[in-house]
From TrEMBL:
The keyword Protein transport does not apply. Pfam families: SBP_bac_1. This is Extracellular solute-binding protein. It comes from the Bacteria. Residues 27-44 have a biased composition (Low complexity). Residues 1-22 form the signal peptide. It comes from Paenibacillus campinasensis. Residues 27-55 are annotated as: Disordered. InterPro entries: Bact_solute-bd_prot1, SBP. Keywords: Signal.
Length: 489
């Protein structure tokens, strides 16, 4: 089948080159293959019908509200794609963040998934294990591949296969209230560029705690969402910079049996015990932690994203307008992006979030031409003006050259220090691990789901000690991987 797929690489190349020439004379800059004419219908190739007219085809996609206006543009995206490729129809089904995974899994289990779906790159192993991924390696031309930055592109690879294309790369960080940081004597600009150790961070969040006359805490130094969909975020994000950047080391040994894991668990408990974090941390979800930041109940919040700067700015504008639309009891807050601290003397390794699009197949094997068409649609969705606009709304730097060269619909004010901080964190992003076998990754996810997440909740609630959690995770890892399959130090 791969030989057959290669025949269509030439077709894709010709279509992209013709489109590039057409785009030079037009105002549309959606992608390297964009054109505002219908010339793509006559690109010198036949889909097997013996003539010059390309065979009609429909590509389906299941997509969440990636940014504020992303889903509102679906009808325009469908129309423009058809104008670029008159023989193709792009049919987009919207999904909410809450039901995106459930919808996709239901369709996958029924044997009728969409051709394209939005996922976090960490989900690739999951769908690879279900044998529903489509390898696009043979239909993505060198020109298309060259449009993407190498590191985010690797996050959609598994072994030698390219199973999708990235939409953006973001860093999970933390964020502080500028006024509170300065009142606590924290040189936040230095932290943005040079980072901080756990010891420095612990002293800083202690200084950020405020109590009332009765001794009740009215402002915490640090709050992190740990409930609901964020139940594993706190541990996994901090672990990256605690000497545990992945579940497996370069020898494919499970790393959470290392003494570094125990040291991290002890630090997590210490920040609650000394009053810098709420005792009820295990019940704080994403909405609650952001509410606490906007209402001045915490100096630093996590997890953070670059777009939080804009969310805080918009709430400030609502407060200033005094129209009742701001978050109840909120205060004006300037959001300052900060890196997570380092633990155990380890180097800073940011938690890199690469989300994007995967190609899927159902019970019926897709034709070679259909796979080619999926690649066209996926590149269209993840590049050019579409990618430029959702990246802009998320306060992220585009990861394709075509998006960097495209115009955006609206400019947003940015804090220049945050821009520099985001870039400093992004510069330390590491390439994806594509060498971890699917079966090992699946077993690690099982340990995460069945042991790590519930034990973390118990640790945060002060129901077990760090040592007890460490022992439970180590026992599960040895059971799964054997004594020789885990790190011992």
């Amino acid at each position: 089948m791969k030989k057959g797929l290669r025949r269509f690489t030439l077709l894709l190349t010709v279509m992209m080159l013709v489109s590039l020439l057409a785009a030079c004379g037009g105002s549309n800059n959606n992608s390297p293959g964009s054109t505002n004419s219908d010339s793509s219908a006559n690109t010198g190739g036949s889909s097997g019908n013996g003539g010059g007219e390309l065979e009609k085809d429909t590509i389906t996609a299941l997509l969440p509200p990636v940014s504020a206006n992303y889903q509102a543009r679906f009808s325009d995206m469908e129309k423009e794609f058809n104008e670029l490729y008159p023989h193709l129809t792009l049919k987009i089904e919207p999904a909410s963040w809450e039901d995106m995974t459930q919808k996709l899994d239901t369709q996958v289990n029924a044997g009728s998934p969409p051709d394209i779906a939005w996922v976090g790159s960490t989900a690739i192993s999951k769908y690879a294990a279900l044998d529903v991924l489509v390898d696009l390696s043979d239909v993505l031309t060198d020109e298309v591949i060259a449009d993407y930055d190498p590191i985010p592109l690797q996050y959609f690879q598994l072994g030698d296969g390219q199973y999708g294309l990235p939409a953006y790369m973001a860093i999970h960080s933390i964020g502080g209230n500028r006024q509170f940081l300065e009142e606590a004597g924290i040189d936040w600009r230095s932290v943005q560029q040079n980072g901080w150790t756990y010891e420095e961070f612990r002293e800083a969040i202690k200084a950020g705690v405020v109590k009332d006359a009765s001794g009740e805490t009215t402002r915490y130094g640090f709050v992190f969402a740990t409930a609901g969909v964020t139940s594993k975020d706190y541990l996994s994000i901090m672990a990256k910079s605690a000497g545990l950047p992945e579940y497996f080391d370069e020898n494919l040994k499970f790393t959470y049996t290392s003494k570094n894991f125990l040291g991290l668990l002890e630090a997590i408990r210490e920040m609650i015990d000394d009053g810098s974090m709420p005792k009820e941390l295990s019940s704080i979800d994403a909405g609650k932690r952001w509410n606490m930041f906007l209402t001045g109940q915490t100096m630093i919040t996590g997890k953070g994203l670059a777009s939080f700067e804009n969310s805080a700015r918009l709430n400030n504008e609502k407060i200033q307008a005094n129209d009742g639309s701001a978050v109840a009891d909120s205060i004006e807050a300037e959001y300052i992006a900060l890196p997570v601290p380092t633990f155990n003397g380890a180097d800073y390794v940011p938690t890199t979030v690469v989300d994007g699009y995967i190609a899927l197949r159902g019970k019926k094997e897709p034709t070679e031409q259909h796979i080619h068409n999926i690649a066209l649609a996926m590149h269209y969705l993840s590049s050019g003006s579409i990618a430029a606009n959702y990246s802009n709304e998320l306060f992220l730097s585009p990861i394709t050259e075509s998006a960097r060269n495209a115009e955006v619909l609206e400019e947003y004010p940015r804090n220049e220090d945050n821009l520099k901080a985001d870039q400093a964190m992004m510069d330390k992003a590491v390439a994806a691990r594509t060498d971890i076998p699917t079966e090992l990754a699946a077993e690690a996810i099982k340990i995460e789901t069945e042991v790590i997440v519930p034990k973390l909740q118990a640790l945060l609630a002060d129901e077990i000690t760090p040592q007890e959690m460490y022992d439970a995770v180590k026992a599960a890892a040895v059971k799964s991987f054997g004594e020789d399959g885990v790190v011992v130090d």
